[in-house]
């Protein structure tokens, strides 16, 4: 690196001599639609148990005895991430906020620059927020080997031993063993996601591994290779980190600098070009949970090979995955199906076409369907709201405000609102008034009046909102004051 000057740390966390988990939480998981959508992607859902995929990933570092993680995410999901980490008991995490998505290479570079401020030789363990690992014992031994190689200047990935031909993963050709580091091998080459025939061939070779997308390298090594192969990216991200701002518990990368960074994955930017690439062959039960058939494979199956999640009734059904988020779902006389039911969409697919769900999502986007990216349940820093009924010049929503939280001070130009409290206690600002409302009490907010909603209690505040007016879009909000720094 030509410039090793970095600003003082803003986080107060020391990484010297440690391995730092770096978690990338920027994906949308479109192949798991309709559960995973851009507004609330798969890493925030409990798809395999009680904890969400993000929580499981963050706890993975704790189980390995490592320090607090650094998480790179977009600003929209910052409060969801912070709350899920708190619920999981993961403390002292640093959350870096990207102003725009620029793929994995700039995201990892931002984490590396941030960590290098205190210790350029700290080792980064980079992983996506939405993958699963079942064998933590094998993971620990594999990680130990990867860290040992990383301390010798290698950029190490984990190659997963194939259990079947798979077209959804890239492959790594395992080369010769590295001297002085047991269990680590040179990378002979990377192979793009193959077609079915090529996947069949590679899976049977014995020296080809699935590319897990996890990387282990020192901050100094990674930044040195970025500077060598992508100097423009290096310069843009270095400046974005140096000029970042602290916002509550978050660190916002400088927008103007970061937006100029090339949009490129770490595979294309570094892994496929460096002479330092190494791989640890692993068998620790990894899955990127990239499709519904992957969840079927990982799920607990009944005697007929079915995975049922939620209020599901099956009769004469075999080898299927059926999931519902509340609506009674019945399947009769079918096999090899994926059935996923949410409040506003239903997916029915042959398991053999699980990888094609993303093409359906793209068709929905092309036709302007909101279900492509947004749930009916919309999460906000203060809680969430849910659309219940919509008609000409009116709509009805359920609003839930978490204890101690409040909405922005705002007004609308095109609608009036009527709020009815159905649970908890509310403080309502209406113009110059401040009104305390209890259960079964209501307030009317005329068009154009300044207003705010706050939950002063210890239990969630739930109310029903009835909007009426000529235009009811969410962009008809003029925020005057907001504790969450939203525009």
From TrEMBL:
Q: Which residues form the Nucleotidyl transferase domain?
A: 21-303
Q: Which UniProt keywords apply?
A: GTP-binding, Isomerase, Nucleotide-binding, Nucleotidyltransferase, Transferase
Give the reactions, separated by semicolons, that this protein catalyses: alpha-D-mannose 1-phosphate + GTP + H(+) = GDP-alpha-D-mannose + diphosphate
Q: What is its EC number?
A: 2.7.7.13
- Occurrences of domain Mannose-6-phosphate isomerase type II C-terminal (ranges): 368-482
Q: Name one GO biological process term.
A: GDP-mannose biosynthetic process
Under InterPro entries, the record lists: GMPP_N (IPR049577), Man1P_GuaTrfase/Man6P_Isoase (IPR006375), Man6P_isomerase-2_C (IPR001538), ManC/GMP-like_b-helix (IPR054566), Mannose-6P_isomerase_type2 (IPR051161), NTP_transferase_dom (IPR005835), Nucleotide-diphossugar_trans (IPR029044), RmlC-like_jellyroll (IPR014710)
Ranges for the MannoseP isomerase/GMP-like beta-helix domain? 316-364
Q: What class of enzyme is it?
A: transferase
What does the record give under GO molecular function? Answer: GTP binding; isomerase activity; mannose-1-phosphate guanylyltransferase (GTP) activity
Fetch the PANTHER family from UniProt.
MANNOSE-1-PHOSPHATE GUANYLYLTRANSFERASE (PTHR46390)
The entry's family comment says: Belongs to the mannose-6-phosphate isomerase type 2 family.
User: Per its UniProt record, what NCBIfam families does this chain match?
Assistant: GMP_PMI (TIGR01479)
What name goes with this protein?
mannose-1-phosphate guanylyltransferase
Q: Which organism is it from?
A: Acetobacter garciniae
């Amino acid at each position: 690196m030509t410039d090793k000057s970095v600003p003082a740390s803003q986080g107060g966390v020391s990484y010297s001599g440690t391995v730092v988990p770096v978690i990338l939480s920027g994906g949308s998981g479109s192949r798991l639609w309709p559960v995973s959508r851009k507004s609330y992607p798969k890493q925030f859902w409990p798809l395999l148990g009680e904890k969400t995929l993000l929580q499981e990933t963050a706890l993975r570092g704790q189980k390995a005895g490592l320090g607090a993680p650094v998480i790179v995410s977009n600003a929209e999901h910052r409060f969801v991430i912070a709350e899920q980490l708190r619920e999981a008991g993961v403390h002292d995490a640093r959350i870096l906020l990207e102003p725009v998505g620029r793929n994995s290479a700039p995201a990892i570079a931002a984490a590396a620059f941030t960590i290098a401020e205190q210790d350029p030789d700290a080792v980064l363990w980079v992983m996506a927020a939405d993958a699963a690992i079942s064998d933590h014992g094998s993971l620990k031994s594999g990680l130990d080997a990867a860290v040992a190689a990383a301390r010798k200047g290698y950029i190490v990935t984990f190659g997963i031993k194939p259990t079947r031909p798979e077209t959804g993963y890239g492959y790594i050709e395992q080369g010769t063993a590295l001297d002085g580091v047991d269990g680590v091998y040179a990378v002979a080459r990377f192979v793009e996601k193959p077609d079915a025939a090529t996947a069949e061939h590679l899976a049977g070779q014995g020296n080809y591994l699935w590319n897990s997308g996890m990387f282990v390298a020192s901050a100094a090594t990674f930044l040195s290779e970025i500077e060598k192969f992508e100097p423009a990216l290096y310069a843009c991200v270095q400046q974005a980190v140096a000029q970042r701002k602290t916002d509550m518990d978050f660190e916002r990368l400088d927008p103007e600098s970061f937006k100029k960074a090339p949009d490129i994955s770490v595979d294309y930017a570094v892994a496929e070009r460096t002479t330092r690439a190494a791989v640890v062959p692993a068998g620790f039960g990894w899955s990127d949970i990239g499709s519904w058939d992957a969840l079927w494979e990982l799920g607990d199956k009944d005697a007929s090979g079915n995975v049922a999640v939620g209020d599901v009734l099956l009769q004469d059904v075999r080898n299927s995955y059926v999931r519902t988020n509340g609506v009674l779902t019945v399947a009769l006389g079918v096999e090899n199906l994926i059935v996923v039911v949410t409040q506003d969409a239903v997916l029915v697919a042959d398991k053999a076409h699980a990888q094609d769900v993303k093409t359906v999502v793209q068709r929905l986007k092309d036709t302007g369907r909101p279900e492509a990216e947004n749930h009916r349940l919309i999460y906000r820093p203060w809680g969430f709201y849910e659309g219940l009924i919509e008609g000409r010049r009116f709509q009805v929503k359920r609003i839930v405000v978490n204890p101690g939280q409040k909405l922005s001070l705002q007004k609308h130009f095109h609608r009036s609102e009527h709020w009815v409290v159905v649970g908890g206690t509310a403080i309502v600002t209406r113009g110059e008034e401040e009104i305390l409302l209890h259960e079964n009490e209501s307030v009317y907010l005329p068009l154009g009046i300044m207003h705010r909603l706050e939950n002063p209690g210890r239990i969630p505040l739930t109310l029903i909102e009835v909007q009426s007016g000529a235009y009811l879009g969410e962009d008809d909000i003029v925020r005057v004051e907001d504790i969450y720094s939203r525009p």
